[in-house]
């Protein structure tokens, strides 16, 4: 009797196991990442690392060679337009000018004398022409000698600061060798590197506002104005250099080479459209579609959308989706019309 009961129990257990294995498994619900569209919550701002540069800078040099005998400026000095920066030894150039002046005066006297003689038919036209040529040559030499004497001094072309001093007194200087470097800091330039995808936005200065902040003063933004952009990209980064300008605040010591952060903010008329990541889009022929999620049915449906501008963090949606709707932002690869899905946020909360 005990043996029969044991056999019956084992049979029931095996039957139960067999029935359990024969049931079809429940289909897995795909997990997706959802994004709710709220154009008003979109902050259309871009941040770029930037570098401050002088609005104007120049390496100043002599146009004639000579020995440097006077350089009254040092690095960091502020100089006014027209102030003396450096002077060469002038003795040799003064002597050359005096010699050229004597030669010119002699040629001038000879020309006058021959003109009088020519009027009296005592000299030929050829002799008069030769005297006039000598006069012209002497005048050129005198003017050149006078100009070379002027070239022995360097004066500030505009209000500036001495950024660098490359030469010391009593150094023999060649023509064209930089003596000092000056920078105009009354206005500053702020340069950023912009990727190709954002260059169309930068081309329209009326479509955005731009400010810069310093690491030491993050709470104080400085207004910038668009100046120019390069049409040739950096060969390595493939970015384009965009330059903005700003007034140098009098209460701060801003110098070229300092770092800054530039914020480019699109104006309100340009930020009312929602932005979707590119991987949320599906191509169907010439149409572009997205999966829209319904919280009531927990299912997705395909929706055709019209695209706008391509931006750094996605693409604008002109039409096809209403404010507040949920769109599948990631995980669209295995979805189909009407499929039930589960949000990855919901999955994380259940763990």
From TrEMBL:
What terms describe the molecular function in GO for this protein?
A: efflux transmembrane transporter activity
Q: Which residues form the CusB-like beta-barrel domain?
A: 190-265
Q: Which GO terms describe its cellular component?
A: efflux pump complex
Instruction: State the source organism's domain of life.
Output: Bacteria
Q: Which UniProt keywords apply?
A: Coiled coil, Signal
Indicate whether Coiled coil appears among the record's keywords: yes
Which InterPro entries does the UniProt record give?
Beta-barrel_RND_2, RND_pump_MFP
What Pfam family is a match for this entry?
Beta-barrel_RND_2
Coiled-coil stretches are: 97-148
Q: Specify the signal sequence span.
A: 1-22
The answer to keyword Coiled coil applying to this record is: yes
Q: Which family does it belong to?
A: Belongs to the membrane fusion protein (MFP) (TC 8.A.1) family.
Cite the NCBIfam families for this sequence.
RND_mfp
The identity of this protein, by name, is Efflux RND transporter periplasmic adaptor subunit
Native organism: Nitrincola tibetensis
